[in-house]
């Protein structure tokens, strides 16, 4: 039997499945719940335990990790008679790794404390590849003692792990991350269309650009998506649309102007409205191609 903390994992999607499997590989006992039966079977095949409900998954857990799409889903799994707060044992640590509004995280921490539960908001950056390779960047909000307790678990999931401040701070930094990523992808997409229309060897051009000041993790990770027009979702346009809403709303609340971010948020929304919401966010290339007169 493992002496490591018992982990409950709620949400086994594109990110949650490989992340939970990395914890299993690190020796943690993981009990998971999600709505898709095939994902539960995948967890069991990896050495985890499939639960039939949230209540069953969390009842004996020392640490409860959640990874779901947005604030409404976090609230749905956290509250109510079948939710985490009513069924977790007192003293358990909740680590919410979803990307949600900072206020949702602040409210969750407050409500959980009334039940004797501790909370960290710990959204991640790095996409599906980062989740699989356990090299995610994890930005955390909450108390130092809880961060210290969670650090060994987080180190099994990511490479750069930073406590950014009190509850909600992790989500604020994640919002800034999503702003930078979206603007970066948009710039790369515009460069790709410009290069191709100019008759330049695209592979060679992207290689040399990525070796200079224009280089970035975004270009490294998404270069093949651009070259091959492969938009299989690692991070869907639908989710980046949600995140751009979070950052533009949060920026408005604190009085920060995001002129370029606002434009890119509209371009993401436009791509989603054209039916591309289920594609990877590198599909912003398709929007630039449409604007440039290409049939896509």
UniProtKB/TrEMBL annotation:
InterPro entries: 6-PGluconate_DH-like_C_sf, 6PGD_dom2, 6PGDH_NADP-bd, HIBADH-like_NADP-bd, HIBADH-related, NAD(P)-bd_dom_sf, Tartro_sem_red. Keywords: NAD, Oxidoreductase. PANTHER family: 3-HYDROXYISOBUTYRATE DEHYDROGENASE-LIKE 1, MITOCHONDRIAL-RELATED. The keyword Oxidoreductase applies. Belongs to the HIBADH-related family. Pfam families: NAD_binding_11, NAD_binding_2. Gene3D superfamilies: N-(1-d-carboxylethyl)-l-norvaline Dehydrogenase, domain 2, NAD(P)-binding Rossmann-like Domain. Signal peptide: none annotated. The active site is at 174. It comes from the Bacteria. GO terms for molecular function: 2-hydroxy-3-oxopropionate reductase activity; NAD binding; NADP binding. This is 2-hydroxy-3-oxopropionate reductase. Residues 6-165 form the 6-phosphogluconate dehydrogenase NADP-binding domain. The lineage of its organism: Bacteria, Bacillati, Actinomycetota, Actinomycetes, Kitasatosporales. Residues 168-287 form the 3-hydroxyisobutyrate dehydrogenase-like NAD-binding domain. One of its GO terms (biological process) is glyoxylate metabolic process.
């Amino acid at each position: 039997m493992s002496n490591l903390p018992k982990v409950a994992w709620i949400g086994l999607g594109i990110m949650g499945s490989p992340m939970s499997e990395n914890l299993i590989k690190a020796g943690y006992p993981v009990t998971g719940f999600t709505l898709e039966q095939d994902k539960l079977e995948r967890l069991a095949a990896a050495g985890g335990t499939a639960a039939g409900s949230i209540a069953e998954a969390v009842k004996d857990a020392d640490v409860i990790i959640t990874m779901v799409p947005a604030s409404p889903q976090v609230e749905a799994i956290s509250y109510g008679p079948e939710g985490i707060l009513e069924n977790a044992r007192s003293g358990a640590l909740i680590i919410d790794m979803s990307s949600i509004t900072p206020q949702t995280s602040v409210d969750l921490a407050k409500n959980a404390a009334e039940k004797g539960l501790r909370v960290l908001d710990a959204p991640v950056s790095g996409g599906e590849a980062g989740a699989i390779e356990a090299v995610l960047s994890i930005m955390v909000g909450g108390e130092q003692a809880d961060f210290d307790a969670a650090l060994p678990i987080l180190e099994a999931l990511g490479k750069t792990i930073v406590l950014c401040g009190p509850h909600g701070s992790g989500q604020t930094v994640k919002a800034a991350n999503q702003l930078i990523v979206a603007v970066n992808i948009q710039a790369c997409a515009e460069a790709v269309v410009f290069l191709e229309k100019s008759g330049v060897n695209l592979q060679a051009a992207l290689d040399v650009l990525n070796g200079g000041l224009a280089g970035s993790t975004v270009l490294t990770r998404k270069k093949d998506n651009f070259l091959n027009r492969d938009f299989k979702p690692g991070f869907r346009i639908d989710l980046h649309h949600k995140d751009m809403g979070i950052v533009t709303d949060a920026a408005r609340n604190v009085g920060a102007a995001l002129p370029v971010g606002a434009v890119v948020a509209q371009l993401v929304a436009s791509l989603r409205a054209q039916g591309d919401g289920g594609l990877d966010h590198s599909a912003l290339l398709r929007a630039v191609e449409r604007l440039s007169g290409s049939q896509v």
